[in-house]
Design brief:
With about 350 residues, this protein is an alpha/beta fold. Among the domains are: about 100 residues, Winged helix-like DNA-binding domain superfamily/Winged helix DNA-binding domain (Arc Repressor Mutant, subunit A, Orthogonal Bundle), CATH 1.10.10.10; about 70 residues, no CATH class. Helix content is about 50%, strand content about 15%. Helix 2 crosses helix 5.
Length: about 350
C-alpha cells in the first residue's frame, strides 16, 4: 500500500508539473526582459537582491515579486543562490549563459521571447482543432498564415528575424566545429534559402577554397551585404537552383510538407554533379539525439504544427524516404552539438 501511495503521489506531482509547465518559460521570459541573465553573467561576484533591483529600469521595483521569481528560477537551475553573510546572493549558470541578450555570444533569448509572445502562444490553443478539422493552427488563430502575418506586423517580423538569426549563429558555430571536414574538396557551394548571406559568408571565411552562392528570393538578396567570396542570386528554389558542387540548406526542409520537399530535392539534384555532388541539410532528426535534445526535438515538431504551413520534424526513416523520392540514393546523419543534425545526401 505504501508503494501504491507513493506511486500515486508521483503521478499527481507529474500532472501538476504538466499543468504548470508554462511557468518555466514565462518566468524565464520575465528575467530576460529585466536583463537579469546579462547582469549576473557580467558580474564578477554573485549579486544580492537589492543589487539586482538597483539595475532595473525602475525607481521603485517590487523586490518581493523579484525575490519570488528568482527563487523559482534557482529551483529550476537557471540561476544559482548562496548565503553569504546572512544574505542571499545570485549567480549565473551554464543555462542562463544561453539566455543573455549580449550580441557577442550565442543566445537563445530572442527565440524564447518569440515563442513566449502572445502572437506565438495563441496558435497552441488550436492544436486540438487541427486534429479534428485539419488545417493550420496559426491561420486558425490569426486568420492568416504566419508569413502573411509577419509581412503586415513589423514587430512580430522583427522578433521572428531575431529568433532566426540567433539560431543561425548557434547552428553555424556547431556546424563549423562538428562538420569541418564536410566542406573539404568543394569548389563551390550554394546556400538555398540563405537569407542575406551570413551563413554562407561564414562558411566561405572558414573555407576560403569555396566559392559561395547565396540564393534566396529576389527581394531578400536585394538587401544582402557584401561577403568576400560570395555572390548573391535571387530566384525560386521550386523552379531552379544555381549550379554548384554542393547544395546547403539550413532549417529549410522542416518548413515544408513532403510533397514540396521532394520538389526542392529534385531541383537540388539538377544543380549538382551527378557523380560527385551532395546536398548538405541541417535539420532536426526526431529520435536521433534522445540523450540530449530528444525532448526539444519533439517539442519543435509541435512548434511546426503551431506555426508553420505544413512543416514538420522528421525521423531518420522519414528523411530516408524523402531523400529517395527526391533522387538521392544514400545519406549519412552526422551529429553536431545543437538540436539540428547534418544530413548528407548523395545522388550516387
Amino acid at each position: 500500500m505504501g508503494d501504491e501511495v507513493q506511486a500515486q503521489a508521483q503521478a499527481q506531482a507529474e500532472a501538476w508539473r504538466l499543468s504548470l509547465a508554462f511557468a518555466d518559460s514565462l518566468a524565464v521570459k520575465s528575467a530576460i526582459e529585466l536583463g537579469i541573465p546579462d547582469l549576473l553573467q557580467e558580474s564578477d561576484t554573485p549579486l544580492s537582491l537589492p543589487e539586482i533591483a538597483m539595475s532595473l529600469p525602475s525607481t521603485s521595483p517590487d523586490t518581493t515579486t523579484l525575490s519570488r521569481i528568482m527563487r523559482f528560477l534557482v529551483r529550476k537551475h537557471v540561476f544559482t543562490s548562496q548565503e553569504i553573510e546572512d544574505e542571499t546572493r545570485y549567480g549565473p549558470t551554464r543555462t542562463s549563459g544561453w539566455l543573455t541578450k549580449q550580441v557577442h555570444r550565442p543566445s537563445l533569448a530572442p527565440f524564447l521571447l518569440l515563442e513566449t509572445g502572445v502572437v506565438s502562444l495563441k496558435p497552441w490553443h488550436y492544436l486540438s482543432r487541427c486534429v479534428l478539422e485539419g488545417g493550420e493552427a496559426f491561420e486558425k488563430a490569426h486568420g492568416v498564415e504566419i508569413w502573411g502575418y509577419g509581412a503586415k506586423n513589423r514587430e512580430y517580423s522583427r522578433l521572428f528575424n531575431e529568433a532566426m538569426a540567433c539560431n543561425a549563429q548557434i547552428v553555424l558555430e556547431a556546424l563549423l566545429r562538428g562538420y569541418e571536414n564536410g566542406f573539404e574538396g568543394l569548389g563551390s557551394l550554394v546556400d538555398v534559402g540563405g537569407g542575406t548571406g551570413m551563413t554562407i559568408g561564414e562558411i566561405v571565411r572558414a573555407n576560403p577554397h569555396i566559392s559561395g552562392i547565396n540564393f534566396d528570393l529576389p527581394h531578400v538578396v536585394a538587401t544582402a551585404p557584401h561577403y568576400p567570396g560570395v555572390v548573391h542570386i535571387g530566384g525560386d528554389m521550386f523552379h531552379a537552383i544555381p549550379q554548384a558542387d554542393a547544395v546547403f540548406m539550413k532549417w529549410i526542409m522542416h518548413d515544408w510538407g513532403d510533397e514540396d520537399c521532394v520538389k526542392i530535392l529534385k531541383q537540388c539534384k539538377r544543380a549538382i554533379p551527378e557523380k560527385t555532388g551532395k546536398v548538405i541539410i541541417v535539420d532536426a532528426v526526431v529520435g536521433g539525439k534522445e540523450g540530449v535534445f530528444g525532448d526539444a526535438t519533439l517539442a519543435f515538431d509541435l512548434v511546426m504544427i503551431a506555426h508553420s504551413s505544413g512543416g514538420k520534424e522528421r525521423t531518420a526513416e522519414e528523411w530516408g524516404k524523402l531523400l529517395k523520392d527526391g533522387g538521392f540514393r544514400r545519406f549519412n546523419i552526422i551529429s553536431i552539438p545543437t538540436i539540428q543534425s547534418v544530413i548528407e545526401a548523395f545522388p550516387e
